[in-house]
Amino acid sequence: MSSRSCQMTLFINRGKSDDDLIIPLNDSLSGTLSMDFMCAKTTVMASPFLTEDRFWLNNKEQSFENKRLQNCLKEVRNRANPKLPEIKWKIAICSENNFPTAAGLASSAAGYACLVSALAALYEIDGDISDIARRGSGSACRSMYGGWVRWCKGLRDDGVDSIAKQIASVEHWPEIRVLILVVNDSRKKYSSTDGMKRTVETSEFLKYRVQNVVPLRIEAITSAIKEKDFNSFARITMEDSNQFHAVCLDTFPPCIYMNDTSHLIVELVHAYNEHKGTNKVAYTFDAGPNACLYLLEQEVYEFLSLVNYIFPPASGQKDYIRGIPVIEEQLPKESSLHIEPQRSGLLKYIIHTKLGDGPQRLYNPEAHLLNETGVPKK
Amino acid sequence: MSSRSCQMTLFINRGKSDDDLIIPLNDSLSGTLSMDFMCAKTTVMASPFLTEDRFWLNNKEQSFENKRLQNCLKEVRNRANPKLPEIKWKIAICSENNFPTAAGLASSAAGYACLVSALAALYEIDGDISDIARRGSGSACRSMYGGWVRWCKGLRDDGVDSIAKQIASVEHWPEIRVLILVVNDSRKKYSSTDGMKRTVETSEFLKYRVQNVVPLRIEAITSAIKEKDFNSFARITMEDSNQFHAVCLDTFPPCIYMNDTSHLIVELVHAYNEHKGTNKVAYTFDAGPNACLYLLEQEVYEFLSLVNYIFPPASGQKDYIRGIPVIEEQLPKESSLHIEPQRSGLLKYIIHTKLGDGPQRLYNPEAHLLNETGVPKK
C-alpha cells in the first residue's frame, strides 16, 4: 500500500499546548503544496511471513520504537475492524522524500501525513484521520487535505476533535503560486519543539496572542481566501509570520529562526508591494530561515526576476530556480526598487510551485518502495 | 559656559506617545555611562556683540532653526529670570562628541543633555531640567543624572511631570562594568523615531506590553538595583531587551534592528550564564545592532577573553578593546563553551567602560569650544 503526500506551508503558526497528544494552543491555517516538486512517499506492507516490524526512512533503517510512529500505528489499529487479519501481522514501512532534509523544510509533516494515509489504506479505515496524523507530527494533520486547510485546535483533552478541515480546494483559487527561497544558513539550529515549550513557559506575549489575536486573524484570513482577496490575505499572512517570530523572540532565552537573509527578503517584499501600491507578494517563515512566498501567477515573472537580480546564485550554480519552469528569457538585470544586489550565494536555491490536492494513493506496483519480502527495493 | 555629558544605555526601552513633546508611553530605566571614554561637550555663549544665533555640531555649522533645539532654548529662557540681560542676546552654540556618530550609539541623548546643562548654567536656572532635555531628545532626560536613572512618563498632557529621577548613584554599586560591542553592519538603517511611530500604529503587542509588562518590570529592576541582585537585574534587562525587539518585529512592516552578529552575542551571553549557573552577564540592544553588556568587574577578564576568542578582530586592527585598560596578558585562546570562533571582523571594536556621574560643568577656559568672538576655536 503506497501513498504520497506533500509538504505544506503555514500562514497562521500554532503554539503547542500538549506535547504528547500534540494539541495546539490555537487554530492554524496553511496551504498544501503540490506534489509535483516536493513530496514524501511511503509504502507499508503487512504480512504473516514478516518476522519483525521494520521501518526505513530515506534508505536508512530506523528504530521501530519511535514514540510518534507507535502512537500513529496504535491509533490506526484501534479504528480498524478488529476482525481484519492484517492487524495482528508484523509490518514493514518504507518512506522517502524528495526534498533535502537539511533544508529545514519540515519534511516530517509530509512524512507523517503520508504514513498515516498509507496505514489507513492498509487497515481499510474511512473518514477523517487527521487527528491520527497529528499525533505523528502536529502539522501533518493539515497535510491530510489539499488546498487551504485549517487545523481546529478542538476543545477536548483527548484531542479527538483537534482535526484538520479543508476550507477551500486548489481549484477555488488556481492562480496562487508559491516561491520557496531556501536560505544559506550557518547558525545553530534550534529544535522547534524545545523552542515552543520554552515559549509557552516564558513568553508574556504568547497568551495574549492566542486569546486575542489569532482567533480574529483565522476568521479574517479564511474570509480573504474565500473571497480571493489577495491584498488582505497577504497582509494577514505577513503580520502573523512576524508576530509568531516576535513571540519566539519574547521567549527566554530567545528563539531566533530568521537570519539577516530572511530579513532582506522581508524588506524586498515590502519594497515590491509598496512600489505596486498593494500587497502583491506575501512572506511567511516557519521555524527556520527559509521564506515561503505567496503570489499570483501573473506576478511570478516580474518578482522572480527581482529575486534573481538581488539574490544572485553562487557562481557556477545550476538549477537555481527549480519547480514550475519559468520562461528562460533574459531576466531583467535592473530593479526600480532601491535595494542593491547582494553578494551571491545567500540563497541555496528557489522552488517555484503551487498548491496541491493532498495525499494520493499509488496503485501502480512499480511505485512501491518495498519488494515482495518487505525489504526496500533500493 | 561649557558642559560635558555622557552617553547612556537602556534597560527598559520606552515606547513613544507624543512626538512633539516627546512624552513616552511607559517609564524607562537606564544607566548613565562614565565620561572618561565617551562624552559630548558643549559650549554656549551669549553676547550683545553677536549679530546672529549660530550652532556648530562636530565642526559643521547647522541650521539654528532645528525644532528640537528651538524647543529646548525657548523652555530654558522661559524659566530664567526675565530681568537677565543674556536672555535677549544672540547666542553661539558649539557641540562635539568623541564617539563615532555612525556607530549608532545614540549620541543625541548625550548631546541634548549636555546642551541643556550648558544653557541652564548660562541662564542661571536651578532645579530639575530633565523635562527640558527630554524635548531635545527623549532619552536625554535620563542623561541629566548619573548612576541609575528612571524616566517617569508622567500623567500630564503638557509633559511637565515627564522627568528623570536618579534611583541610585554610581557609588551604590561601583563594581558594575559595561562592554559595548560595536557591530559591523551593512544593512539599511531605520530611523528609530519613524519605526516607533509605526509600532504605535500597528503592533498588537505594544499596548499589552505598556500596560501589563513594563510597570512590573520597572519595579522589579529598581529593587534588583537597590539590592545589588545582579542575577535578577540581568534577567529583567535581557527579557526586556528581547521584548522591545519583539514589539519592533510585531510592527508592520517590521522594524529589525538586531542582526546575525547581535544574535550570536545573545547566544554567547546565554551560554556563558548557563555555564556559570547564574546570570553573570546581561545584554541589552537599543535601536541598532550594537550590544550593551553589563557585568561585574570580577567577570570582565574571563568574559572579555571569550568575546575576543569568539569574535576575533579584523586582521591588522588596532585598538580593538578600548576604554578601561585590561591587563594585556595573553588572553586565553580556548573556550569551554560550545561556540566556535567566528570569522574575524564581525565586531568593529569593543568599549570597556563603567557608569558615571552625569553632566559636569567645565570651568577651565581652555575647555571652551568657542573663542571670544563666538566662533569655534577649531
What report would you give on this structure?
Two copies of one chain form a homodimer. By secondary structure, the first copy, chain A, is of the alpha+beta class. Chain A folds into two domains: 173 residues, Ribosomal Protein S5, domain 2 (2-Layer Sandwich), CATH 3.30.230.10; 179 residues, GHMP kinase, C-terminal domain (Alpha-Beta Plaits, 2-Layer Sandwich), CATH 3.30.70.890. Helices cover 32% and strands 23% of the residues of chain A. Chain A is built from eight helices and 17 strands. Chain A has a six-stranded mixed beta sheet with strand order 8-7-9-6-1-17, with helices on one face. In chain A, strand 7 and strand 8 form a beta hairpin. In chain A, helix 1 packs parallel to helix 2, helix 1 packs antiparallel against helix 3 and helix 2 packs across helix 3. Chain A is globular and about 65 Å long. Chain A starts with a strand and ends in a 16-residue tail after the last strand. At the A-B interface, helix 5, helix 6 and helix 7 of A face helix 5, helix 6 and helix 7 of B. Chains A, B: Its EC number is 4.1.1.33. Chains A, B: Keywords: ATP-binding, Cholesterol biosynthesis, Cholesterol metabolism, Lipid biosynthesis, Lipid metabolism, Lyase, Nucleotide-binding, Steroid biosynthesis, Steroid metabolism, Sterol biosynthesis, Sterol metabolism. Chains A, B: It comes from Exocentrus adspersus.
